[in-house]
Amino acid sequence: MTATTLSETAMKEGAVATLRRGLRLTPEFRRGIGVTLLLAALATAGRIVVPIAVQQTLDHGLRSGGRGPDLAFVRNAVLACAAAVVVTFLAGYVMNVRLYRTSETGLAALRVKAFRHVHDLSMLTQSGERRGALVSRVTGDVDQISQFMQWGGLMIIISLGQVVVATALMLVYSWQLALIVWVSFVPMAFGLRIFQRKISAAYLVVRERMGDLLSAVSESVVGASVIKAYGAEHRIAERVDTAVDRGRAAQARAQALVATTFPLSEVVAALATALVVIVGVLLGVGGNLTAGELVAFMFLVTLFVGPMQAATEMLNEAQNAVAGWRRVLGVLDTDPDVADPGEEGVTLPRGPISVRFDDVSFAYPAGPPVLRGVSAEIPARRRVAVVGETGSGKTTFAKLLTRLMDPVEGRILVDGVPLADVRFSSLRERIVIVPQDGFLFDATLGDNIRYGRPGASDEEILAALAELGLTDWLEGLPRGLETPVGQRGESLSAGERQLAALARAYMADPDLLVLDEATSAVDPATEVRIQRALDSATRGRTAVAIAHRLSTAEAADEVVVFDKGEIVQRGPHERLVEEEGVYKALYASWAAQKAL
Amino acid sequence: MPERINPQILRAGFRVLGVAVRTEPLMFGLSVAASAVYGVTTVASAWVLGRVTQEVILPAFDSGDAEAGALAAGAAAILGVAVFKALGVAGRRFFAGLMQYNLQAEYRRAVTRQYLRLPLSWHHRHPTGQLLSNASADVEAVWAPIAPLPMAVGVVFMLVIAAVAMLLVDLPLAAVGFLIFPAVFGLNVVYQRLLGPRAALAQQLKAEVSEVAHESFEGGLVVKTLGREDAETERFAERAHRLRDANIAVGRIRGLFDPMLEALPGLGVLAVLWVGSIRLDAGAIESGDLVQVCYLFTLLAWPIRALGWVLAELPRSVVGWERVRAVLDADGSLPFGTSTLDSNEAASVEVGNLRFGYEAGEVLSDVSFTVRPGSTVAIVGPTGSGKSTLTSLLVRLVDPAGGTVLLDGVDVRELGPGAVSGAAALVPQETFLFDDSVRGNVVLGSPVPDEEVWAALRLAQADGFVAALPEGLDTRIGERGTTLSGGQRQRLALARALARRPRLLVLDDSTSSVDPQVEARILHGLRETAASVVVVAYRKATISLADEVVYLDRGRVQDVGTHRELLDRSDGYRDLVNAYDDEIAIEEDVTA
User: The domain that contains A589 carries what CATH number?
Assistant: First the structure.
C-alpha cells in the first residue's frame, strides 16, 4: 500500500537551522544556559592551573636569583593553585548537574511531544511508515541526542575550553611556541577527518554485518520447527558461520583503523614537544623565555592530546545528534492529515446515529481509486452488512466511516453533520470500529476490555461479556479476567483476541458499531453464538458489519454489495439473492461449499 | 539486574576473564605485551622530559648557550619514546579488539549450535526474545571487559614501574604518589559502584520506554478508534519522566566524580611541587626530577581509570556469562537409535496409546490410529484439541510422554539421525520462510535439481506465481525480499516439503490461506504422489477428500472413520464440521 509519509523538510535544511528549530521546540534546553556556560568556562580554566604552578615554582620558587628555593613562595603558589583546583572542581560539578538536568528535562518533553504527535497522525501516515521507524523517533533518535548531551556535548565544551585556555596561556608565555604547537596539530586535525570517514564507513559495514548475523541467528530460533523437521541444521549452521566470520572480519578491519588512528595524536604531541624544546631553548638563550615557561609548555601540549583524540568521536556524536534531531523534527513537522477540529468542532448528542455518504471517492496517494463516487444512506438503528470480494473497497468504506482517513472527494455526514467537523472526543465516543486484527496490550484480559471504558468495574465487564454470550469462554480461561494476554495478546489464540477486542469495543458503548471482519478467526461454533449475541447487543444502535461469512448478511436488515470500489447492489438478503448480480454469485459459491 | 561489585561477583568475573585468557592465549599475550610497551614508554616519556629539563634546558638557560648536539638528542629521545608508545597503544587496541571479537564469534557460534541441536521441546520452554538476546546482547556483555582488560594489565605494569621510578628519584616524593594513585583508584571504584546500578536502571527504563512506544504504536488503531491518545501519552510520559530522572541520577554521579578524578592528580602535582621544593632545598633531588614526577602524575591520571572500567563491566559480564552458560550447558537432545528405513513406497504410520502433556496439563491422552500406506487421513477437532501437537509427534519434533509412533513399523525413537526427516515432511501451521531465494527456501541446502524444484512448485500450485517473480527461482524472499501473500507463502512451504519427495506428508492446517479451489487442486495432485498424507483440516472440502478421518476432542480420539460415517454417527463431529461451513469465507483468495 502506498501512503503518505513523514515530512522531509528537516532532512533538507542545514545542521544549524535544524538545531535552532529544535531548540525553539524545546525551550527547556535554553533555561539557564548562560550560567551553565559561565561555569563551563570556569571549570575548563582549571586545566591550566598545574602548568602555571610548575612554571611559577620553577621560575620564581626554585631559581630565584640562584639562591635556592624560595619555600614560602612555593607554598603560597601551591596553596593558591590548590584553591583554584578546588574551585574549578566545584564549578565542573555544578555545570555537569545543570547540563544533565536541563537536557534530560528537555529531551523527556521532546519524547512525549513526538509520541503524542505520532498518535495524532492518521492511519494513512502511520501505515506508510514502518512502525519500527516511528518507535525509534521517540526512543533511539532521542537517545542519540541524549547521549550527545551527556557525553559529546560536554566533551565539546570541555575540549574547546581546554584548547582555548591552553592557547591563551601559551600566547602569554610565547607566541612563537604557541604557533609551533598549533602548526603541529593542525594537519593532524585534517588527517583525522579523513581517517574518521574511513572509520565511519568501516563501522557502517560492521553494523550491516551484525544485522545479517542477527537475522541468521534469529532464523535458527524462529524457524526451529522447520529446521528440525527437515534436518536442515547443517545448512543453517553454515549460514551462521559465514555471518559470524564476515562480522568478525568487518570488526577487525574497523578495529585496525581505530588502532592506527588513535595513537597518532601521541606522536604529534611528541613532535610538538620536541619542537618546543628546540625552539624554546633557542628562544631562552636569547632571553625571550624562562625555563619554567618552557617546561610549562610541555605540560600545555598534553592538553591538546585529549581533545584531538576525542575530536573524531565528538564529531560523530554531533552528527548523530543532528541526524536524530532531524528525524524527530520530521515527525513534528508532519501535519496530521486527519485533523481534530478541537474546540470549534461539533459535539454530537448521544443516541442512534445516521450516516450519509455523498459521492465519496478515495485513493491512496499515487494509487488507483479504491472507492468511486459512493453514495449511501444508513438510517439510525439500521444494521447493515457490507459484502464484496477482497479489494472491493469494504474496509476503506469502514475506515472512512470512522474517520481513520478522509475521503479524497465527496463528504460524509453523521446525523447531518459533516464528519470532519465532529470533535474527536465526541466522534471516538460515539463511533467505534472493531478491526480485524484484535490488537491487545500486554496486560490482563480485564484491563484490555476496560480499555474501552476506563474505570469500568469487573462486574460491568462480566455483565458485558455475558451480554455477548462470552461467559463460557471466560470461564474456560485459567485465570478469568486476570489472565495475562502477553505481548500483542499472543498468549491468546487469534480468535480469542478478536473476542477480547469485540468486548472492548462493546464496553465503549458506541452508538454506531463498525465490525471489520471482527470475528473472522473465531472458532466457528463460537461465532454462531456471538452472531446471535451481537444481534441483541446492537439492537437500537446503528451497526455496520463487514461480513466475512454470508450468514452475517442473512441476519442483517440490509446488505450493501461492493464491487470494484462501487456499491453495485443494496437491499435485504431475501431480495438480493433473487436478483441477478454479484450477490447472487457470491451466495451461490458459498452455498455450494456448504452443501458438501 | 547487574548490581554492585561485590567479592562474589569479582570472583565470578575473574573466572570469566580466566576463560577468555585460556581461550585466546595468543591474542591476550600479544595485547598484554603491547600494553606493557605502552606502560614502560609512558613512564619513560616522563623520565625523558625530566632528563631533558635537567640536562638540556636548565644548563642552556643557565649558561645562555645552547648545545646543538644535546638539543637534538633530547628531541630525538622525546620522539623515539613517543613512537614506541604509539606502537604499544596501537598493538594493545588491535589485539584486544581481536581477542574480544574472536570470543564473541566463538560463543555466538556455540550458542547457535546449541539452538540447532536442542530439541523443539526445549525451544518451546524458552521465549524467542530471550534466545535471541542470549546469542547477541548477552554474548556481547560477557566479553565487554575484554577490550579494556589488556590496558588494565598494562596499567598495573605501568604503576609498578612508575613506583620504582619514583622510588629511585626520592622516597618522600614517591610517598606522595603512593597516596594519590591509590586514592584515584579507590575513588574510581567507588564511582563505578555508585554508577553501576544507576546506569543499569537507566538502561532498563530506556528499554521500557521503547516497549511502551512500540506497543502503543502497534495498537495505534485501537488507541485512535477508542480516543485514548491522552491516556496513552500519559502512560508514555510516566516512563519518559522516570527515564529522565534516572538519567539525571546518572548525571549527578558522573558530574561529581569526573571533575573529582580530574582534580585529584592536579592536587597531587601541587603536593609534589611543595614536597619537591623542600627536597630540592635539602639537595636530595634535582629540578629535572621534580619535572619528571610532575609529568608522570599528569600522564598517569587517565590510564589508572582503566582498572575501573574493567571492574565496571564485570557485573554485566557475569550475568551474561550465566545466561550464555545456561544455553551451552542445556542438555536433552533427542537421543537417536540406529535403525534405518529403506523403503521407497508410501509410509505406514501406527500411533499407539500416545500421551503428551505440557505443564498446564495433558494435551493428548491415549491417542491411537493408523495411516495405511498411500492413504490420506484427516485430523479434525476444535481449537486446542491437540492436533498440532500430534503432528509434531508424528515427525518426532518432540517425544511423547507415553505410547509410540511407528513409522513403517519402526519406533521413531529407534531410527538413526536423519531417518525421520528423510522419510516424513511436516508443513507447520505457521509458515516460516528463510531470508533466502525461492530455490534456497525450497531445497534447504539439499542438492535438488531445478526440474524437481519446479515439479514440487507445480504440485503445490506455486509454479505460476514463482514464474512471474522478477528473478524466478532466484528471487529473494523473506524479511528483506519480495513480499508474498499468505497463500503464496503457504504454497512455497508446501513445495519445500514436496521437493524432498516425502513418503509421509504431514500438513498442519498448512493451506488455510490458500483459496479453496486451489487447495482442492493441490490435494488432488497429492494423491498422485507416492506419499501417505496426514492433514489437519477445517474445510469440509478438504476433509471429504480424506480416506479416513480422526476426530480429536480434548486430546482424545473420539472416533475414527470416513467423513460420511462420522457425520452419521457422531453428534460432536457433525456440529463441528457444520459450524465449519461458515468458515468458508467468500472472499478468500478468490482473486489470487
Answer: 3.40.50.300
Facing residue for A259 by CB, picked from B49, B90, B302: B90
Range of the domain at A483: 355-595
Query: And the C-alpha cell for A199?
Result: 572509520
Torsion, Cα A29 A35 A41 A43, to 10 degrees, reads -90
According to CATH, the superfamily of the domain at B349-430+502-591 is P-loop containing nucleotide triphosphate hydrolases (3.40.50.300)
pTM assigned to the model: 0.75
Instruction: Quote the distance between the C-alpha of residue A298 and its chain's center.
Output: 48
Q: Which fold has domain B7-328?
A: ABC transporter transmembrane region fold (1.20.1560)
In a domain, A350, yes or no: no
Tally A–B CB contacts below 8 A.
Answer: 453
Q: At residue A137, what are phi and psi to the nearest 5 degrees?
A: -60, -40
Q: What is the torsional sign of CA B537, B543, B547, B552?
A: positive
**ipTM field:** 0.80
Closest residue in B to A83 (Cα–Cα): B267
Residue A167 is assigned to a structural domain of this protein: yes
> How many other C-beta atoms are found inside a 10 Å radius of the C-beta of residue A306?
17
Rg (CA), chain B: 36
B90 touches chain A (CB under 8 A): yes
Tell whether B530 lies on the interface with A, counting CB pairs under 8 A. no
Judged by CB atoms within 8 Å, which residues 459-518 of B form the interface with A?
479, 493, 496-497, 500, 516
Q: Are residues A252 and A303 in the same domain?
A: yes
Q: Which three cell numbers stand for residue B240?
A: 519518559
Same domain, A110 and A152: yes
In terms of residues, how long is chain A?
A: 596
Residues A314 and A379 in one domain: no
Same domain, A426 and A571: yes
Cell numbers of A1, please? 500500500
Q: Is there a single domain that holds both residue A464 and residue A426?
A: yes
* Element holding B422 (H helix, E strand): helix B419-423
**For residue B232, what is the nearest residue in chain A, using CA coordinates?**
A116
Give a yes or no: residue A346 inside a domain. no
Give the domain CATH number at A76: 1.20.1560.10
Burial B322-332 (b: 16+ CB within 10 A, else e): ebbeebeeeee
A95 and A228 housed in the same domain? yes
Question: Do A556 and A485 share a domain, yes or no?
Answer: yes
H or E element at residue B405: strand B402-407
Work out the minimum CA distance from B4 to partner chain A, whole angstroms: 22
Where are chain B's structural domains?
Answer: 7-328, 349-430+502-591
Residues A259, A218, single domain; the answer is: yes
Query: What tens-digit pLDDT sequence spans chain A (596 residues)?
Result: 334 466 666 666 777 777 777 777 777 777 777 888 888 888 888 888 888 888 888 787 766 455 667 788 888 888 888 898 899 899 989 988 888 888 888 888 888 888 888 888 766 566 555 555 677 777 777 877 877 777 777 778 788 888 888 888 888 888 988 898 898 888 887 888 788 888 888 888 988 888 888 888 888 888 888 888 888 888 889 989 999 999 999 999 999 998 888 888 888 888 988 998 888 888 888 878 888 888 888 888 888 887 877 776 777 778 778 888 888 888 788 777 777 887 888 888 888 888 999 999 988 777 778 888 888 889 988 889 898 876 788 888 888 888 888 888 899 998 888 888 888 888 888 888 887 777 888 889 999 898 888 888 999 999 988 888 888 888 878 788 888 887 777 777 777 888 888 888 888 888 888 888 777 666 666 677 677 777 777 777 888 988 767 777 777 888 999 888 888 888 888 888 888 888 888 888 777 666 55
The 3-state DSSP class for residue A134 equals helix
Residues B253, B195 contacting (CB under 8 angstroms): yes
B534: which chain A residues are within 8 Å (Cβ-Cβ)?
none
| Structural domain count, chain A | 2
